[in-house]
């Protein structure tokens, strides 16, 4: 029997953008031959120009929204600070319309060419075990609780035609550590504690119990640079006992401005999938022509 051909897919996971996205990012991704781009949200504070530019990226993509993407809409204090007339504009809805099918928040996008589906977690999350922005989540998504949220995420995932699922979220799941330096740990006062999303953790466990393969769960929100100490970075990769790899891609700021006459550099987390299994994760800094300035191997398979 002839051996099956090796299927290699290169993913670029884009961490929290916070207004730092340019046309040069499109050029860099195309120059290095990325197959699929995943965006973990926090494009800006309801930034329509940034979201519009991302929507025009001409390679396959999937996106979720972060807490900053409803900064002036989701909470009472945010609405009080809103710099535009919310009676005339709905910038959250406008962002959703711009991204269209690429937005997998509480949804899923099937990629037949890669034999996998990308499943989105709860959008606009702040993390932690408090169900925040109750009115916003009820009105926008009909969601009232973690239990309802986790059931929806799991059902959406289980309906996938593919056996391989990648979970894309703004904040990671609970269960990955409770130290401030943990991949979803709280690095502000009071220091320490697991600040992951419980609904996401439950949904992942549920779909694996049903036989789906989950090689990768990727997210951001908790920046790599820690607030309480400068001598180390946050844990960026975690692997659980079932072999699922969890990647925090929030290397912020993600663009280093031009200096010493050299053009700006931008970072991406590159994930190599081989036959549906994560083989390698690298944090790379690129020029817009694809030239790699530096790269750091965050994880490599032992197989």
From TrEMBL:
Residue ranges of domain Calcineurin-like phosphoesterase in the record: 10-224
Superkingdom, taxonomy of origin: Bacteria
GO molecular function: hydrolase activity
PANTHER family xref list: CALCINEURIN-LIKE METALLO-PHOSPHOESTERASE SUPERFAMILY PROTEIN
Descriptive protein name: Slr0418 protein
Organism: Synechocystis sp. (strain ATCC 27184 / PCC 6803 / Kazusa)
Classification lineage: Bacteria, Bacillati, Cyanobacteriota, Cyanophyceae, Synechococcales
């Amino acid at each position: 029997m002839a051996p099956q051909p090796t299927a290699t897919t290169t993913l670029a996971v884009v961490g929290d953008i916070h207004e730092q996205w340019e046309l040069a990012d499109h050029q860099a991704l195309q120059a290095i031959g990325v197959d699929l781009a995943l965006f973990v949200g926090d494009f800006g504070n309801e930034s329509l120009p940034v979201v519009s530019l991302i929507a025009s990226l001409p390679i396959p993509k999937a996106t979720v929204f972060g807490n900053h993407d409803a900064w002036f809409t989701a909470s009472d204090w945010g609405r009080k600070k809103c710099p535009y007339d919310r009676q005339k504009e709905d910038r959250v809805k406008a962002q959703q319309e711009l991204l269209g099918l690429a937005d997998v928040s509480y949804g899923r996008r099937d990629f037949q060419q890669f034999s996998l589906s990308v499943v989105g977690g709860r959008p606009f999350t702040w993390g932690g075990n408090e169900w925040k922005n109750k009115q916003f989540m009820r009105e926008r998504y009909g969601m009232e609780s973690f239990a309802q949220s986790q059931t929806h995420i799991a059902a959406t995932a289980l309906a996938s035609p593919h056996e391989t699922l990648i979970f894309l979220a703004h904040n990671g799941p609970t269960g990955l550590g409770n130290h401030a330096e943990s991949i979803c740990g709280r690095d502000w006062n009071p220091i320490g504690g697991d600040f992951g999303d419980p609904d996401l953790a439950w949904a992942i466990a549920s779909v694996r119990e049903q036989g789906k393969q989950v090689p990768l769960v990727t997210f951001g929100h908790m920046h790599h640079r820690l607030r309480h100490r400068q001598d180390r970075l946050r844990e960026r990769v975690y692997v659980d006992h079932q072999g699922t790899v969890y990647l925090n891609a929030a290397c912020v700021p993600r663009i280093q401005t031009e200096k010493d006459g050299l053009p700006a550099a931008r970072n991406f987390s590159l994930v190599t999938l081989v036959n549906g299994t994560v083989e390698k994760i690298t944090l790379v800094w690129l020029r817009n022509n694809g030239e790699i300035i530096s790269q750091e191997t965050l994880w490599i398979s032992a197989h």
